[in-house]
Amino acid sequence: MSGQVALVTGSSRGIGLAAALALAREGFAIAINGPAEDAELKAALETVQRVGARAVAAAFDVTDLASHDRKLGEIERALGPLTTLVNNAGVGVMQRGDPLEVSEDSYDRCLAVNAKAMFFLTQTFARRLLARDRDASLVYSVVNVTSSNAVAVAEPRSEYCVSKAAAAMASKAWAVRLGRENIAVYDVQPGLIATEMTAPVIAQYEERAQAGLTLIPRVGQAEEMGAIIATLASGKLPYTTGQAISADAGMLVPRY
Fold first, then answer.
1. pLDDT tens for residues 97-151?
2. Are 1 and 27 in contact (CB under 8 A)?
3. E-strand spans in 55-199?
4. Which parts form a coiled-coil structure per UniProt (predicted)?
């Protein structure tokens, strides 16, 4: 898809890197993001470039709201005008446990990264997009990666759940505002996905999936989430916006 340019936040590994690769294979130019210029970001950039995509590293902390416009400008000077924003950067809780013991630091960290940064980066992206003439042949979209915990409570990670619920509502709010501008907004809600973040607990989740927690009896893979994100960003679900995509193997389907 010549002319499509995407920023994927939190794309030095996991779902973000899988999304960047899937978009690259669709012909997107890609800005790979991580909080710092480090070996992990460099390796991710090289991985995306190996599939033939034009790509740059865009190192910045998404919670640094004052840097958003400047960083998007740098990306656009390197790759061309952005058409696509994938808000994937996220953090987990500082310590799992009883909601009665949640610290203010952990709560604030989850909200700052998972909800506030996503909201304001979308705002900056949208402002830049609406300030210029757009090519009607291109697809313009925002794809937010939240979580099944936007809907279902995980008691040991309550502050994370709160942050993802906020992000899910922000997705709807932006879908309402940007729909009349022909910019689609989606909310991808992954379930049990094998990533670096879930590595400490994924074995027990695999057992629970095989025992019936998910309708498809296995955990998901980052590459599957990447395929969903690329499908949405490529406009392959036309005449849609505002949808929450439950990428959870049917885990949250009501049953009795």
1. 999 999 999 999 999 999 999 999 999 999 999 999 999 999 999 999 999 999 9
2. yes
3. 55-59, 84-87, 141-145, 184-190, 193-194
4. none
**Single-letter amino acid code for the residue at 94:** M
pTM of the model: 0.97
Tokens of 64: 């640094």
Closest alpha carbon to 87 in 152, 142, 128, 149: 142
- Residue 142: both structure tokens together: 């925002």
For residues 30 and 6, the answer to whether their CB atoms sit within 8 Å is yes
Query: Three-state DSSP class for 151?
Result: coil
Instruction: Return the half-sphere exposure (C-beta side, CA atoms, 13 A cut-off) of residue 100.
Output: 0
SS3 content of the chain, % helix, strand, coil (to 5): 45, 15, 40
Contact 17, 40 (CB under 8 A): no
What are 144's strand-pairing partners?
87, 187
Specify the long-range contacts of residues 25-29, CB closer than 8 Å, at least 24 apart: 25/51, 25/53, 25/230, 26/1, 26/230, 26/233, 26/234, 27/1, 27/2, 27/53, 28/1, 28/4, 28/53, 28/84, 28/233, 29/4, 29/5, 29/53, 29/54, 29/55, 29/79, 29/80
The CATH architecture that domain 5-246 belongs to is 3-Layer(aba) Sandwich (3.40)
CB neighbour list of residue 212: distance below 8 Å, 6 or more residues apart: none
pLDDT tens sequence across 52-81: 999 999 999 999 999 999 999 999 999 999
Can you tell me whether residue 55 is helix, strand or coil? Answer: strand
Report residue 129 CA to chain centroid gap.
19
- Give the per-residue pLDDT at 195: 87
